Amino acid sequence: MDCLFCKIAAGEIPSAKVYEDETILAFRDINPQAPTHILVIPKAHIGSVAELTEANAALVGHIFAVIPEIAVREGLTGGFRIVSNCGPDAGQSVPHLHFHILGGKELSLEMA
Ligand code: 5GP
Ligand code: ZN
Q: How far is the CA of 27 from the centre of ligand 1 (A)?
């Protein structure tokens, strides 16, 4: 499939990885909106939150178990924000499920 984040997950396009295991990958956003801006993706293609079902529960649970580990490693002691844009109204620009981790400053009520 011609999907940017599938290619990043496969290593076909380089990324600044901060975490990787068999099922998920976390890497730095190429256009950071905060001092720390990391994207967490499943390696398998899922279009967005809108496509999630009970069948993905373990995967999503795993992502949310790893996010706090990344936050600790990144020194986000003041807190952080998780964002997942879903569909055009939310401005989703890459149609592969991803969770933004934003932190390292006091965040506004905009996404970052
Ligand atoms: P969305 O707008 O879909 O919620 O988020 C997509 C994010 O992917 C954006 O924050 C954008 O900066 C990031 N992004 C787009 N292309 C690349 C890329 O090639 N590499 C990395 N590391 N991030 C990317
Ligand atoms: Zn994909």
A: 10
